[in-house]
Amino acid sequence: MRKYKLIDIAILTATALLADVVSYWVKSKFVQDTLYIAPSIIFVIIIYIRWGKLGIASNVLLMIAQITIYRHEILASTPQLVGFILGYLSLSSVLIWTGKKKHDIISSGFKMITLYLIIPYGLMILLEAGASNLLGFEGTFVTYWGRHVMNLPICLIIMVIAVFQKNLLVDMPTYLKEQQKERDEKNEYRN
Questions:
Q1: pLDDT, tens digit, for every residue of 25-73?
Q2: Which helix (H) or strand (E) segment is 91 a member of?
């Protein structure tokens, strides 16, 4: 299971990074604005759903990638950088809903989208805007929502697609144990 876990997390993280790089390239070619397009946000959430606390490594790695990709915007001021870091790390709030009830929540599309996307995404924007403003950045709350106006719908579309994919949004340790148990029972029945 350890090898599968590492491969799964690595593939999802690499896919997220590639999506961010391509999105930034497209944004740079066609939109010269402070628009923020980072599909990695949804991939971080998916990794948290699948692997729990192990998603923190991907969260930090992809946050560093975002800082590198959007360095001109994020590194423009210390308050913006601190706000961005707190906001991006707040995606770990998804871990609040992990545990024994996780499988039931994931199987419900609307609850899942609300708990695993809308709430963490909103918290991310609130923390980013709040911390930045407390530290002296003079942008408005509307500025932060405006930056994410394209990203949230993209993440929402990806999440809706993911909901309909069998076994994508599952607690993987529990799922793999159940699969192994079923295989063992089949083998026992055959013998």
A1: 988 888 767 677 889 999 999 999 889 899 999 999 999 999 999 998 8
A2: none
Q: CB burial class (10 A; 0-12, 13-18, 19+) of residue 54?
A: middle
Choices 3.30.70, 1.10.10, 1.10.1760, 1.10.4100: CATH for 2-175 = 1.10.1760
Tokens found for residue 2:
């350890």
CA atoms within 13 A on the CB side of 62: 32
C-alpha to C-alpha distance for 178 and 133, rounded to whole angstroms: 47
pTM: 0.86
CA dihedral 57, 61, 66, 67 (to 10 degrees): 110
* Per-residue pLDDT at 108: 60
